[in-house]
TrEMBL record:
GO terms for cellular component: beta-catenin-TCF complex; catenin-TCF7L2 complex; chromatin. Its main location: nucleus. Residues 187-219, 258-284, 335-376, 406-464 are annotated as: Disordered. GO terms for molecular function: DNA-binding transcription factor activity, RNA polymerase II-specific; RNA polymerase II cis-regulatory region sequence-specific DNA binding. Keywords: Activator, DNA-binding, Nucleus, Transcription, Transcription regulation, Wnt signaling pathway. This is Transcription factor 7 like 2. It comes from the Eukaryota. SMART domains: c-clamp. Belongs to the TCF/LEF family. Residues 339-362, 418-448 have a biased composition (Low complexity).
DNA sequence: TTTGCCGGGCC
DNA sequence: GGCCCGGCAAA
């Protein structure tokens, strides 16, 4: 783990992240940042965003969640030494309750200091990011201080165990004027503030309000998994393909990461402004075994998470629901498939469907993929490339990439096409976890271990 | 140009 | 209550 391998984004990340963390999770922040950085070093070699630390949440994700974009928080990783599979998280306290957890039952990943409910729904294939307690992760707002990204999180939510006075004065962070990359003070011209007159003819009140907001330091949004991934990979792509246009690069990376074949039942909006109605349904279906079943809907009253759990149990909602998006509980196998939301929200107990199933096919498809794709993996910067396994419906992916907008893509620049391959990513475990939400993550881990290559993190180690 | 995430606001 | 849609993040 050479230092230089440390993805730049990680550095920046800790930076940015720390801001957010400090603000939102004052107690986790710095420490976490350093930890993740350290861990990052370890996994840095892999371009896969898998180990990217989610800058947004102080959540610990399981290392084998390796979707290329899976942003992981590896704080806990620090506890496991290379060579040894993570036994269990030593210090694990429920972030929410603050109650120390007893040894975890096998079915619950110790790496998820999340509320049980959360665990149950995380894993939506799309949800590379582990949803946290359903709370916004932006800077926490204390008192009347308002950030551009105010959060509903109340101190007690995650910090209840700490006395109020112990909470770091995060707000001072930028109030003090300490420069931080993540915080950009809008060059709000004083003109505006001075020229009240000017805004006078407008709507004064509203206007002034906006002005005020403008003046506030703008806290940049944390980079999401994809962004981090891009940041990291862009250079590689540029180097290998001599591409330099962001658009082109992004496109490539987007493909690599996207359509992993795995459910990916989403991609609704993008891809050329899709129409809400025309998309996804079928694609999801065929990817998800569960889908083949009648939409659990059952009864016609497919209660959505919100209605099901209520606002107070938002942590139990499926990710989309939290985002106010289409509920996937009944399609992704996320909830129903995995476990019909029981009234009490005991999602986590629900047994996963069949991670292995998904994973196996994937493996098989790999060889095929390679054949189909003349382009070699050799170029891939990732040592784990050989472990890469394409998703079952890889054909689709290939087709797409191969046939991708003619000329539109800078493919030409990349003769080897290596870039079109998903990053080392999506190792089996990842696939499994992707397909399999939550609880299973741990399971899949172990079960998969025998069948397939180990989780990325482990692989890396062994390689070393 | 890419994806993920957020939240306003429509239905 | 469900979720569409625009906007933002990096380069
Ligand atoms: Zn839902």
């Amino acid at each position: 783990m050479e230092p230089d391998l440390l993805p730049s984004f990680l550095r920046g990340l800790s930076d940015t992240a720390s801001v957010y963390l400090q603000m939102k999770w004052p107690l986790l922040d710095v420490q976490a940042g350093s930890l993740q950085s350290r861990q990052a070093l370890k996994d840095a070699r892999s371009p896969s965003p898998a180990h990217i630390v989610s800058n947004k949440v102080p959540v610990v994700q399981h290392p084998h969640h390796v979707h290329p974009l899976t942003p992981l928080i590896t704080y806990s990783n620090e506890h496991f030494t290379p060579g040894n599979p993570p036994p269990h998280l030593p210090a694990d306290v429920d972030p929410k309750t603050g109650i120390p957890r007893p040894p975890h039952p096998p079915d619950i990943s110790p790496y998820y200091p999340l509320s049980p409910g959360t665990v149950g729904q995380i894993p939506h294939p799309l949800g590379w990011l582990v949803p946290q307690q359903g709370q916004p992760v932006y800077p926490i707002t204390t008192g009347g201080f308002r950030h551009p990204y105010p959060t509903a999180l109340t101190v007690n939510a995650s910090m209840s165990r700490f006395p109020p006075h112990m909470v770091p004065p995060h707000h001072s962070l930028h109030t003090t004027g300490i420069p931080h990359p993540a915080i950009v003070t809008p060059t709000v011209k004083q003109e505006s503030s001075q020229s009240d007159v000017g805004s006078l003819h407008s709507s004064k009140h509203q206007d002034s309000k906006k002005e005020e907001e403008k003046k506030k330091p703008h806290i940049k949004k944390p980079l999401n998994a994809f962004m981090l991934y891009m940041k990291e990979m862009r250079a590689k792509v540029v180097a290998e393909c001599t591409l330099k246009e962001s658009a082109a690069i992004n496109q490539i990376l987007g493909r690599r990461v996207g359509n992993k074949g795995q459910a990916q039942g989403k991609k609704k909006k993008r891809k050329r402004d899709k129409q809400p109605g025309e998309t996804n349904e079928h694609s999801e279906c065929f990817l998800n075994p569960c889908l083949s079943l009648p939409p659990i809907t059952d009864a016609n009253t497919p209660k959505k998470c919100r209605a099901l759990f209520g606002l107070d149990r938002q942590s139990l909602w499926c990710k989309p629901c939290r985002r106010k998006k289409k509920c996937v509980r009944y399609i992704q196998g996320e909830g129903s498939c995995v476990s019909p939301p029981s009234s009490d929200g005991s999602l986590l107990d629900s047994p996963p469907s069949s991670p292995a199933m998904l994973a196996s096919p994937s493996r098989d498809s790999k060889p095929q993929t390679e054949q189909t794709q003349p382009l070699s993996l050799s170029l891939k910067p990732d040592p784990l490339a050989h472990l890469v396994m394409m998703p079952p419906p890889s054909s689709l992916v290939l087709a797409e990439s191969a046939a991708s907008k003619p000329g539109a893509l800078p493919a030409a620049s990349c003769p080897n096409g290596a870039l079109d391959h998903p990053p080392a990513a999506l190792p089996p475990a990842a696939a499994a976890s992707l397909a399999q939400p939550s609880t299973s993550s741990l399971h899949s881990h172990s079960s998969l271990a025998g069948t397939q290559p180990q989780p990325l993190s482990l692989v890396t180690k062994s390689l070393e």
